[in-house]
Amino acid sequence: MLNQTKNNALSEFLRKTPQSKEFSTEAKQVMPGGVTANIKAFDPYPIIMDQGAGAYLYDIDGNKYIDYLLSYGALMLGHGPPAVVNAIQSQVEDDGTFLFGTPHRLETEMGKKIRQHYPSMERIRYTNSGTEATLLAIRMAHAYTGKHKIAKFEGHYHGGYDQVLLSVNPSVDNAGPVDEPTSVIESKGVDPYHQEHTIVLPFNNLDATAEILRKKKDDIAAVILEPIQSGFIPADHFFMEGLRTITEELGILLIFDEVKTGFRIGLGGAQAVYGISPDLTTLGKVIGGGFPVGIVGGKQDVLMTSAPNSNSDVFDSSQSKTSQAKDVLFHSGTYNGHPTILAAGLATINVLEQEIDHVLTTTRQLKKGISELFAKHGISMQTIGLGSIFNVVITDKEKIWNHRELQQANFSMRKQLDFLLLNEGIYTKPLNRYSLATVHGDKEVQDTLAAYDKALSKLT
Ligand SMILES: Cc1ncc(COP(=O)(O)O)c(C=O)c1O
To answer: 339-376 and 82-95 are packed helices; what angle lies between their axes, rounded to 10 degrees?
Structure first.
C-alpha cells in the first residue's frame, strides 16, 4: 500500500515539475550534483524556485508553495519583507556606500540590541556565517583555557569544518556505545587528527556526559552544543542545569550554538527558555534578515582574547613590534559587520520585537492541527519542538531525547508524506523541520491543514 502511494506521489511530482528536472540536469553541468550546498539536493531532483513573496515560493514550473523551510529558518519575516527592503535601501542611500572597511555605527548599534536580548553576550564579534561563528568560538575557547580538545554532542551540527564534522548523523551501527559514543567522521577529507581532538558526548544523558568530561577535563577547552538538537529536540532542563554546573566546576567553557534557535525559540533564544548563561554563544540565520552573518558573543574576558593590542597585527612587519601576533587571537574578515547586512538584521529584530507572539501562536495552532489530523488518520506521531520551529516525527515513542532515538522514527513514511505535501503546495525539503515566520497566518495554517488531511488520506 505504501509503495503504491509512493509511486503515485512520485509520478505526480514528476508531472508537476518538468522544468525543475530539466534545469537540474543543466545545473549538473556547472556544479557537482547541480547544487552549491549538498543539503539542497534531494532525489529525484530538487525543485528550482523562481520567485518568493511573503509566505510563498513559486517554482519555475509555476507551482505555488507555502514555505516552511524559509531558507533553513533564516527568513523569519518571510520573503521580501518591506521592513528589510527599506532598511537595505536606506542604508545604501543614506551612507553612500555598502562597505566602509572601517568601524561604523551599525556594528555597535546591533551589538547593543543583541546584548539587550542576550545578556550573556557581554562583548561580541561579527562573522559572515554560523559556521565561522562556531569556528571562532572554539578558537576563543582554546585561547582562553590553553586546552586543545573540544567536546560536542552526537547528532549536533555546528557547520562544515573538520573540528565539528564528526558524529552529526552517524548510523547507529557505527556510533559506538550509547554512553560513550565514538567520534565518527562525516565527510571525505576530514583530517583524522580531529577524531582524536573532538570528543563526542551523549545528548540528554547527564551521568554519562559528566563521567566523560571528568575523565578528560584537562584536555577539553569547551563543550559546544545545540541547546535544542537540530532546532527541535530540546535538552531536558535537568540535563542543561547539570551541564552548566559540571562545566563550571571542571574549568570547561560552555558554548551554546544558537544559530538555529536564536530569536526563533523566543527573542532571547534557548538560553532565556532554560535560564542558563553560557560562556559563549553563537548566532546566525535570523539575525542576518536573509543575508550571511554570524555573531560570537559571551563573557568579556573570553572575548577579550581577540582584542588587538599594540603592534600585534599579523600583517604588520615593521620592526617596532612590542608583542607577537600569537599573543592575540586572530580574528579578521573583509566583510565582518557588513553595514547592509546589519541594517537588514536590525530591521528584522525590530519587527520581531513587535510580532514574535504572533509567530509563536501560529506555530502552536499549526502543531495542534497537524497532531489532530494524524490522530484522525490513526498514525502515531509527535510534533516536536519549541518556539517557532518543530518537526513532524512519525513514531510510537512517548519522548525522543537524542539522535539514536530519532533514528527509530518512520522516515520512509515521512518522506512519502512530504512528497504528497509538495504536490499539494506545502514546501519543506523532504524530512526537514518546519520553521514559521511573521507572514504565516490563519489562511496559511488552514490551507496547510487541508493539504495534510488530503495527503494523510492518500497515505492511509
Ligand atoms: C546550529 C547550527 N550551527 C551552525 C550552522 C552553520 O551556519 P551557516 O550555514 O550559516 O554557516 C548551522 C546551519 O544550519 C546550524 O544550524
So the answer is: 170
